[in-house]
Amino acid sequence: MAMAEEKKLLITLESGEAEQPFRWSAGIYGSRFLTELRDNKRFVGIRCPKCGKVYVPPRRVCGPCFVELSELVPVSDEGEIVTYTVVSFGFVDPATGKQKPVPYGYAVIKLDGADTYLLHYVDETDPAKIRVGARVKAVFEEERTGSMLDIKHFELLER
Amino acid sequence: MEPVAIVGVGMTEMRRERKADGYADLVYEATRKALDDAGMEIGEVDNVVTVSNDFFDGRTISSMAVQDACGSYDKNVSTVEGDGTFGAAYGLMRILSGSFGTTLVCVHHKGSESRMPLITNAMFDPIYERFLGIEAITSSALQARAYMDKYGITEEQCALVSVKNHRNAFKNPFAQLPLELTVEEVMASPYIADPIKLLDCCPISDGASAVILASEERARKLDVKPVWVKGVAYCSDAYHLGDRDLSDVRALEEAARKAYAMAGIGDPARKVDLVELYDAFTYMELMWLEGLGFCARGEGGKLAASGDTAADGRLPVNASGGCLSGNPVLVAGLNRIIECALQVRGDAGERQVDGVKTAVAHGINGPCGQSHCVWVLGGEK
Ligand SMILES: [Zn+2]
């Protein structure tokens, strides 16, 4: 079918800006994690009584041990890069409806005192200047609401 | 395991946009082809498994909306939300339960109808990860970097996979993106998310596929070359990316170990004649080959460079062109099974590899291969 003819004869329907709004519970420990970020610019994890692993963000169950967790422990706002990327394609943030300017740095970060990793932005857009193992520190937003975006990004401590 | 065979396969052509076809049209095309391939009529199908994803389809319980198209009307129909390899494994189990002699498994996907990054972003945790904009490509870039950094895998080694698989696609009429490329051209393609470049990525695709599985008793009544299921296993890693070492392939190693044990395969590198695996990004082919036991950890790059994985090599990998040449999500895994079945039967047309007795198909579910499903298929029971 020729392009013009196809346009005339084949119908597609747009959903428009239809949305499915949700309201997700962060749970008791998730709420504690986010309120600590918001109110004190601090990170908290939770320790497994069986394997000793410290989970960040904290959650109720250690998957591998399948035991319930309750011991909240402070973890550092500094850590190291486990892996990273520099993102070059535009992405419309579903939270704000705005596109984050590209490029931006993105990393998996192991905070000191944690055994699991966090995902967040890193303030470097040249991949050659980032490396696995590089030290980073959290930089917080002035206005905080109790979300992961209360952390502005992680700052590279070595360049 | 009681013998179960693949007795019919059908797939649509994978295209960037199948504008004239809705989901149901694609499902009907694939189902009709699978029935014709098996020489069966819909009345001989004892039960149906449909596979789809509600976010991609933009409707809830999306799998139930293709009822007419897959002939599940008035039948026992059940659903899998995940890759087609997992849907087929469920279909297999329904025969093994003894309740059904045949299962039709159909999978559909139209990547053209939604905005891919928004959909794949939605697979991540809404509290901790989703608002940071992570999606399939970004998360895969993080995994690629972790893997490449740990084992010294180079971008050139990854580029070899793009060159090979896009070239293989010329012989596959169902493929969407046959390309004649050089390593230099892949290397010169723009970074999407470092170290992943445009030509390291699969395309967005529309397509559907279907397979019919049958018990030995039912398979024997058909005039077909049965392809026997020798072994199937799957295994899942943690959900949160931050709970995983993205450079490791624990879940795949475990799934492969179990599938090979079922199939009585001690050394897959010697016993397997052909592999179809889920290469959504080039680095995945290298990583999954390691996890599937075809080389040691960290040796995937060398294996790619050796030429052994070429269509005429010692161990052809993605002779169909792989997901890099057409990736209707969910469908892509079932297409790996279909390709293996066709190769074992000797019905793979121009892309037929000589003497395929045992083939391995592989699919993934969840970000960065959270979960892996491994199938071993063979021409002999
Ligand atoms: Zn534990």
What does this structure look like?
The complex is a heterodimer of chains A (159) and B (381). Chain A is α+β, with helices and mostly antiparallel strands. Chain A has one domain. In chain A, 13% of the residues lie in helices and 32% in strands. Chain A is built from 2 helices and 10 strands, in the order ααββββββββββ. Chain A has a 5-stranded antiparallel sheet, with no helix packed on it. In chain A, a hairpin with a 4-residue loop joins β3 and β4. The longest helix of chain A has 14 residues. The N and C termini of chain A lie far apart (56 Å). With 381 residues, chain B is α/β, with parallel strands linked by helices. Chain B has a domain of 126 residues: Peroxisomal Thiolase, Chain A, domain 1. Chain B is built from 14 helices and 11 strands. A 9-stranded mixed sheet of chain B has the order 3-2-4-7-1-8-11-10-9. Chain B has a two-stranded antiparallel sheet with strand order 5-6. In chain B, a hairpin with a 2-residue loop joins β5 and β6. In chain B, α7 crosses α13. The radius of gyration of chain B is 19 Å and the shape is globular. The model of chain B has no long low-confidence stretch (mean pLDDT 97). The chains are: A alpha+beta (159), B alpha/beta (381). Chains A and B meet through β6, β7 and β8 of A and α5, α6 and β5 of B. The site of zinc ion has 7 residues of chain A, from loops.
Main attributes of the structure:
heterodimer, A: 159 residues, alpha+beta, three-stranded antiparallel β-sheet, 32% strand, B: 381 residues, alpha/beta, Peroxisomal Thiolase, Chain A, domain 1, nine-stranded mixed β-sheet, two-stranded antiparallel sheet, 19% strand, globular, binds zinc ion
